[in-house]
Amino acid sequence: MKNKRLKISLVVLGLLIIGIPGIDLIIAKSKTDRLVQGLLNSKNCTLELDSIGEQRIADMLMVEDPGFYSHKGLDFRSPGAGWTTISQGLVKLFYFKQFHPGLSKIRLMLITRLVFDPSVSKADQLKLFYSYAYLGNYNDGSEIHGFSNGAKFYFRKNFSELTHDEYLSLTAMLLNPNRYRIDKYPERNRERVERIKKLIRGECQPIDWKDCELEGCK
């Protein structure tokens, strides 16, 4: 009897392990189009890619997601790519109320690879990223999202008024906004910006795909 119960328990556990990701994908697929259109049409989505400029977009991608246009949501090959692509970051932000390492990471990768990236164009992903990327916190503790809000808070400027160095300062914060905050840790931010500039000029390369800190560009 005990062996029978054990077998039944193992079967149920196996079905749960197999079934939960499948249910997640079905739910994610059913809401993706409506979710993305709502975000793109939101008042928070203010930056058009044309207003950012091809060169600035290319510079940001070289740092944040070098394989963005070629990968299908996941990238563990491109030097400096790190564990999380732009696509994964958006899925984490929009599909998870709470995120915990382990099972949540597996769910994140599945939704990104099988639902989000196939359904959302790269252009729309970029527009969402520029509008909703996390860039630290306001003085009251609420979160700063998007380059437009980041420009206003950290530089008291509209995004279109940013110098290229100021733009790179915001880009430098993307990896870890609290560690590289331009207002609290200007020297730390400046050092990362210098590494980014070396990378953009082709003077260095990340050591491997995990080298998000650009240790290869010291």
Q: What would you note in describing this structure?
A:
The protein starts with a helix and ends in an 18-residue tail after the last helix. The chain has nine helices and two strands, in the order H-H-H-H-H-H-E-E-H-H-H. It is mostly helical and 218 residues long. It has a two-stranded antiparallel sheet with strand order 1-2. A hairpin with a 5-residue loop joins strand 1 and strand 2. It has one domain: Biosynthetic peptidoglycan transglycosylase-like (Penicillin binding protein transpeptidase fold), CATH 1.10.3810.10.
Give the C-level CATH assignment: Mainly Alpha
In total, how many beta strands?
2
What structural class do you assign from the helix and strand content? mainly alpha
Shape: globular
Main sheet attributes: strand count, strand direction, barrel closure:
2 strands, antiparallel
Total individual domains:
1
Write the CATH fold name. Answer: Penicillin binding protein transpeptidase fold
> What's the architecture, going by CATH?
Orthogonal Bundle
Poorly predicted sequence stretches spanning 5 or more consecutive residues: 10-18
Oligomer: single chain
Number of helices: 9
Strand content: under 5%
Pathway: Cell wall biogenesis; peptidoglycan biosynthesis
Keywords: Cell shape, Cell wall biogenesis/degradation, Membrane, Peptidoglycan synthesis, Transferase, Transmembrane, Transmembrane helix
Organism: Prolixibacter denitrificans
Protein name: Transglycosylase
